[in-house]
Amino acid sequence: MASPGLHPGKPNSLIQALSTVYWNDMRLLAYVSGNNLVILSQGALQQTIYLDRDGGALEIEESSGTIAVASGPKVLIYKPSDDRGSLVRWILTWTIHLDLHDGIPTGVSWGSEEELFVSGKSISLWRIFIDGPHRLWHKELAISAMISAFSFDAFLAATVGKNDKLVKVWRRFSYDVSNVDFDFSYLAHPRAVTGLRWRKPFSKSQSVENILYTLCADGILRIWAPTDSIESSYMQMWASIDLYDMLPQVRPDELRFNFIIDNKDFTRATESAVRNAKDDEGSKERLQRLVNAASKNPDVCVIFDQTGRMTVLGIENIGSRIRKAFSIFDIVYDTKPIENFPRDCDYLSFTGYGANTPAESDFSLLIHDFNGSIRQYESSFADLLYPDSVQDRFVLKHSFTGHYKSVQSLTRTADGKAMLSSSNHAENIIWIPKAMFGTIMLQESSIIMAPDKVQRAVILLEGSFVVTVQSQNLSLWDCRKRKATRIATYPLGSLGKKSILNFLLLPELSSTANVFHVVAIFSDQLGVVWEICVPNLDTNFSQPHHENDEMNGKKLEKISNAPRSLNGLRQMNGNGIHTNSALASLKMLSSFSFPVPEGDSLSLVLSVDPVGWNATLSGSIDTYARDVVTSISSDGMVRSWTAKLQADGAPLQWLQTAMVDTGIKSLDLAKGSSMKKIALVDESSTRLTLWDIGESHLEYEERFAKNDRICDLDWTCTPDSQSILAIGFTNRVLLYCQLRFDYTKELPAWASFRELDIRQYTPRDIGDSLWLDDGTLVIGSGNQLFTHDKKVDTHNAVKALHLSSHKLPLRNIFDIVSVLNGPLPIYHPQLIAQSIFLGKTEPVRKVFVNLLNALKFSVPSDSNIADIESNLGMDLEEFLKPAEEETSTGNTAMSRAEKYSQLFSNGAYDDVDYSTFNDKVAESLSDYLKRLSLPYLTSHQQISLTAMVEGMGQVEQHRRSLDENGIRYFLAFRLFVLHRDSMVQMPYRDHNWAFHSGSQEILVDLVSKSFNGRMTWQQAKETGMFVWLKGQEALQQQFENMARIIYTDSEPRNPVDCSLFYLALKKKQILLGLWRMASGHKEQRTMMRFLANNFAEARWKTAALKNAYVLLGKQRYEYAAAFFLLGNSLRDAVNVCVRNLEDIQLAIAIARIYEGGEDGPVFRELLTREILPLAYKTGDRWLASWAFWNLKRKDLSLKCIITSFKDEIRAEDLSPDDLERRTFLVEDPVLVVLYQQLRKLLEKGQQNAVNITPQMETQFVLHIAKLYDRMGCDLLALDLTANWKFMKGKKEPKPEAPKSLLDMWG
Fold first, then answer.
1. Beta-carbon-side half-sphere exposure of residue 447 (alpha carbons within 13 Å)
2. How far is CA 1112 from CA 138, 361, 424, 1106, in A?
3. What is the pLDDT of residues 1062-1113, one digit of tens each?
4. Engineering a disulfide at 1267: which of 351, 451, 1080, 1229 sits with its beta carbon 3.0 to 4.6 angstroms away?
5. Contact 136, 177 (CB under 8 A)
6. 413, 588, 428: which is closest to 493 by C-alpha?
7. Is 498 exposed, middle or buried (0-12, 13-18, 19+ CB in 10 A)?
């Protein structure tokens, strides 16, 4: 997984807040941020360690990688694990507890791998033994040490207090751990000392004199060295450098900063520069000058001003006993400011180091800005010291920042161009996303230090202004400078104490750039609209607003209510449009009542995630306007709303645009998007449902493990408006994207395609997450922010989503989601199947012919993928021609050319014609599909396509016998056989094709042959034969054949197995004959005697029924149903099939056969009491239409396809609503074909009785078109809207009606 953009937290504003060393082949950087210890390696976050209290001074021991960090009155010792590279973790090994009077330590410094110098109110030396740390020496100080440093040989220490002019140098008497003591001497300075450090040797084993650098408030760097080798504790000033003389001031109040590059790092940087030298004359000249300087073995003093101007000095022979050998020489004086330098900062801390490996840059510089960041720069050393015409001397490689305290919430602008992060303290930061370091980073724009916690906020003008809600006030902040200022407030006390359900910015179409309206909706369903006027962006109006100013509280309200000509807050021109003003205001404009229906208990009001739309509302208000909020009632009713601001202070106008009854009573989390999608998480926090509010159906449901609690939901979309949902858990985020609808295999409509796991970076839980512009996801965890741009590891995504055959470049999440959605290639099996269902068999035949020709001449790639076009070079107008079918005659229309050619055909002796589709073309194409992979198809999709080709080839042999419905059923049957492992039975959709087909005889023959003429009941149930087969004679023949097969297939042959079938056929004598042959069966004698009786007599009927109940008790349900038939109780037999055997098709079969048709009372009762309620609960309109047709209610058979049929079902036959009936799978778009067929079959009088208006048909057709669009069948959606003909007998639409359908479709 690619590393995210890191914002590991703001470094604490301490002198010793960070430390860096080269250890174990890694460049480590550790710093404290709030109460976190952040460890980075090569700029990547290695580990975040949570501390009990805010972190203080820290230092890494270079040889062992051990970290010492102060936290409260303790010093924590973390040692690295034995792993290497990114697997290394630091583990708390020891804790040093300081005495209470020692206070909180301000400095820690390693002298060796085992010795640690700790300073604060006192100073102490600790040694780490095997059994833990022990204090070797301790000394209380009169003035607490603010800065301290331990020499690298552990012999000298230096301390200085705050505003202290005297530096104490502590000299150690002995290295004997049993007798440690120090004495000290003073180094006097004219003004307060602001910094000190010891010169770094090449290695700790090197014997060098200890050189001390001190920096004083007078801007002079002083260099101290021991003058006597015997009395080396008495240090004297060796030299001094006036920083202001070396880099003169431009402004009188400018500060100077400096840092030292020790000879160790200077040498390493020079060696790296030699290795990386370029071969041009300018580079050679700069390198030679650098080598000449390095030959003097200098230390280097670098001086900066607050704008980034720089001067560099070399210090030669520092500490030399021969004073005359000491010299300071100029290396560079550069007045050009460094780019990305932290300007206008009061305190900067610098750390520079040379390259340790060839892979590193020559020189790196860390700048700790006490405003809250650490910047890491890299440089070519020769270009840095001798820049000449070089543009970028320092290149910014990393910037480490974030929050001090834990992030609680994230808020963004509608367009994702800016965001606000709020901690659980007063810290609120405006961020602007920016492309940096090869990813998307967040650049701090402004900090809002609110007087109390920000509860809700909206961002204006891409972060230039922010409106916040605190406990007492509504506040307007000017965020154009780094520290935001409050410029207006409105007191909330007058509104009473009630919770805010939602606080949002109205995305209205405004005539001015500085007038906005925010809306608050409260728990009592009342709301308020405020008008906000902000200064012009070019107006420097940032005067802070205080509680005691004249423009605060009620005084501000009075001013806002004064005449506009006097208050100066805004003016209006002749058209009533606000003009820009230099002042800012907050004004309550109006109040309103949120219009939820009576009886709805409002539970949540959510702002929609604005994705994939124009950011403003249109001037009109209608159901096509974009949504503003989504409301959810306590009983699970979800409604989407748009709004419009009325003129003259009238209440805000609300309009409901869509609704869906989810049936989910208790919600833990919900989030809606402006694409009319909403994600709901129930009270268990582990069950997720995704809904389309506009189409009122459930698209996806998933239950996660109990320990996978969903904490956050966030929406975005691709540029093609395909939705993506980020689901946040405790420490990971899963990205889900929408998929094409698939009604053939009933595949899920959503899938996870990326996981973002932050456990490797931090132990803290995710606080919040949100999407920014261009697919960047921001995750807040603890005080850290992680940005994941849209780039993705395509190898893993391709493997997980089976996209290996796709030729399009998959560079980011948008590419992946676009491939999984959008228009399908013309040869895709889903498009082929839907085209056949719509009666477009001729275009499908042409697709197969063109596909064969394309494969013949294609050049396969290395991965055996054929190089063909997605449209095969076809004219797509073929799919927009109205489909012609003759369902009543049972014949498929053939072209005149085909009929003419068949007159003179001599069969097998003719050459194969590959220009038109036939069985030979099907055979050849099938062979190609088994050898070559098609682009944009998975292996399973290609298998499905092959099955369709072979099925169409088989259809060609029966083309004169099969009508369009017969073709639909037979191809669906072929696909079912292919997918049999994942499907229980063919759906009732396919049963309807056969039911309304005039080719049932040939269908029975084709299906039977597929099972080698020995179809079992299970196979008959899968094919739905006894649902769709008409004619009593045909029914009885197939049922008797099945009874015979069931009996002969069992071994030993058992008459029990076929008893129900023969008794349903009323052929008791045949069953008795089978019992006579069942020698050896333990029930033979009993059954022969019992079956020999006359069951027309009441006593034997009663005996049969008693036996049936006994068998029910023994759970021999099928045999019990047979005895119910023997006792002439068909109703009881049917009930056993439905309730005990749970086999509705068996109940249908025995009812139709036993009663001799579809008019029997039991069969009609089965339809009304069982099948119609089942169809309603499952949302199966195919089953409902079939049931009404058999009930001779053909009008309802048609009407139930597009409207609810709940009123046609008795209330006592309905149970509480089932969630399944709301899934998208119940809205099969092929219903439109059944609707057209039934509408055509109904007589004119019956059509009028149905009472279906053109408006109802319009909504139905638009809905189906949207389903086709989601399926990737855009051609079919266009064909449907372009060629639709409205029901006769009603008012005909205008000629441009098809165009209006397309115009309305959105």
1. 14
2. 91, 85, 66, 10
3. 999 999 999 999 999 988 888 898 999 999 999 999 999 999 999 999 999 9
4. 1229
5. yes
6. 588
7. exposed
